[in-house]
Design brief:
- Helices cover 78% and strands 1% of the residues.
- It contains 15 helices and two strands.
- A two-stranded antiparallel sheet has the order 1-2.
- α6 crosses α7 and α14 packs across α15.
Length: 357
């Protein structure tokens, strides 16, 4: 600030000028000093303004970042991730209920739909000439299951396949075995005899849990399963008004079906809990792959043509019964898969054995 004034004074002294000139020079120096002060004030003001703007910008930026709030995980997750732990059966989200309520809802669903399922199954095989076509009925049933599963999967938000394809190929093979052999066994056994064997399903399921999932059951669990199986068999025999028909071929078929059923329950439980898959996904892929298996089998054994010819003679009765049979079975299997996912294969089979018998 003092530099211009000192230069003027030095110039005056060195020049040796007169009084009037000194006054003029002093006036000029004063004006120069005032201009310098005004310039410095302006510079200082502009500097302060720029600093203020910078501070405001930083403050606004900091406010902008501070104002960003992180929503809860349930809001940030996509719909398919949110629904991983949900158990939805036929559009009903069972996760909203406690465990006891979930159990009674699933058991009631299994009871109602499998009661109708068993009645329609026996009604279909009571048609004259239909007994040799148990595998064709299974083929039609798998086709309907695949269609129902595809429709249900389109109605939910999660449409991705979570379980690996190799696992589904194993599950499909076991599903074909348990349902195909069970349906075919009715060509050799009457329905009460089949039910007697189904009552013993608990024991192979426990063995499958030990071998497949590494579960350990205590003596009380094993004793309860054996006593329940024997009690259900005794109850069925005492209550049945139709003499059981123990045909050797039928006994072998239903026994193999029970073995496959014991394995599939544990494999489904392990796969659904490991990959958090939905019921509709499990039904769609396992039964659609199973449909291909049965179709190839019937084509190779020349069993497809006679079955189609027989059913085409009375399509309303055969395919109409098959549709209702498949629909009730699909609803029932949805509740069974929910039981498996929530409570495990053993408890699901325990509830099914008591209800079916």
């Amino acid at each position: 600030m003092g530099a211009p004034c000192e230069e003027v004074a030095t110039a005056v002294k060195s020049a040796g000028v007169g009084g009037e000139e000194k006054e003029d020079l002093a006036q000029q120096a004063k004006e120069t000093r005032n201009k310098g002060e005004e310039t410095n004030k302006d510079n200082f003001g502009s500097t302060e303004c720029s600093k203020t703007r910078t501070m405001d910008l930083k403050y606004n930026n900091s406010r902008k970042y501070i104002s960003i709030t992180v929503p809860p995980k349930t809001q940030t997750m996509s719909p398919h991730i949110k629904s991983i732990d949900d158990v939805v059966v036929l559009g009903l989200n069972l996760s909203r209920f406690n465990k006891l309520t979930q159990f009674f809802i699933c058991v009631a669903g299994v009871f109602v739909f499998y009661l109708i399922y068993g009645y329609l199954q026996e009604l279909i095989f009571s048609m004259e000439g239909f007994k040799p076509y148990g595998w064709y009925l299974t083929l039609v049933q798998f086709a309907f299951y695949s269609i129902f599963g595809l429709i249900e999967l389109q109605l939910i938000q999660d449409k991705r396949r979570r379980i690996p394809g190799k696992t589904y190929m194993i599950i499909a093979f076991l599903t074909v075995g348990t349902m195909g052999l069970s349906n075919t066994s009715l060509g050799y056994l009457n329905y009460p005899t089949q039910v007697i064997f189904k009552c013993c399903k608990l024991i192979p399921v426990m063995l499958g849990g030990v071998l497949i999932q590494g579960k350990r059951y205590n003596l009380a669990d094993v004793s309860a399963a054996v006593c329940m199986s024997l009690g259900l068999v005794w109850f069925t025999l005492a209550d049945s008004t139709i003499a059981p028909n123990f045909n050797l071929t039928g006994v072998i078929l239903i026994s193999l079906a029970l073995c496959a059923d014991a394995v599939i329950g544990n494999v489904q439980e392990k796969a659904m809990k490991l990959h958090s898959a939905s019921n509709s996904e499990m039904v769609l892929y396992s039964y659609s792959i199973g449909f291909v298996y049965i179709l190839l089998g019937l084509t190779c054994t020349s069993g497809l043509g006679p079955a189609v010819t027989f059913c085409s003679k009375n399509p309303i009765r055969t395919y109409g019964y098959a549709f209702l049979f498949s629909l009730t079975g699909y609803f029932g299997i949805s509740f069974v898969l929910a039981l498996i996912k929530i409570f495990g294969a053993l408890l699901a089979v325990t509830g099914m054995s008591g209800l079916v018998c």
